[in-house]
Amino acid sequence: MPDNDYVRKEVKKGKRYIDQHLYEDLDAKKVASVLGHSVSSLWRYFTSEGGSTVDQYIRLRRIQMAARNLRNGCRIEDEASKCGYKTVSGFARAFLNVYGITPWEFSKTRGESLMQEPKIMEKMPFYVVGYVLPGDGGFRPEDTGAYWLDQDFQKVSPREYARIGGASDMVGVWTTREGEPVYLLGALVKKIQYIPKTMAEMQIPGGTYAVFPVEGSKDNSILGENVRVTWFYALRQWLPDSDYSVDESRTAYEYYLQNENSICIPVIPKIRQPKRTRKTEKRKSQE
Questions:
Q1: φ, ψ for residue 207 (rounded to 5)?
Q2: Which domains can be identified in the chain, with CATH numbers?
Q3: What pTM does this model have?
Q4: What DSSP character marks residue 156?
Q5: What's the pLDDT tens digit per position in 227-249?
Q6: How does pLDDT run across 141-170, given as a tens digit for each residue?
Q7: Parallel, antiparallel, or unpaired: how do β-strands 207-214 and 261-269 relate?
């Protein structure tokens, strides 16, 4: 198999072509032909980069665009037809599989609150002192949602917890311990004062973050689903279509403070390639 840079480049080309021809008669065979690859080669490239096949990516992008159109008032029946579904019920099942709610629920009540544009903000660095939960595969918050819900904590006493020096702010973050994925949930502190034996600490760097609001709820099961859908929207829909990329040198995290919840993703501006003109092409050919 070719090196990672080549594979990543070809997958980007494929995704760009799919986005530009999303509602045409499109499948893996057509995309592979346009890019000059065999269907099996392109299948390997796509699955190695994101875990999904070409056809799965096409279906996902159509559902994502349908969600965006539903937010803008489009009819569910029209979106089902555009996405290539023969029945609305088939479209509804696919939509439910992606967003966890039906298109009717999404368009009536929750689409706007769960797919809000983020604020681009500068954040100061801080520490998290908290409980470490085994990752169980981890690192896919768009699948797991608020991972800390319904988990067993090796809790410390209120007196010991108070020594940490945190306020009411809670932070959840995916990280690694001894090479294994773990989820750290704990108090936000400006400096380390005390770490209980059953807890761990982690520094969260400052910098530019895309901050996505998460709709709060009194029912934790709904909160968990809200977190999952917001992660999905942020990572799978907003970022690919935005002017930003994830800054891999820093850490994304979930922020919880009563009903003021958010997901914070470190971002950097995408590098845009300058448009090639006839003058630049002529100059390059003369060099």
A1: 135, -160
A2: 4-114 (1.10.10.60), 119-269 (3.20.80.10)
A3: 0.64
A4: P
A5: 888 888 898 889 988 999 999 99
A6: 877 778 888 677 777 888 888 899 887 889
A7: antiparallel
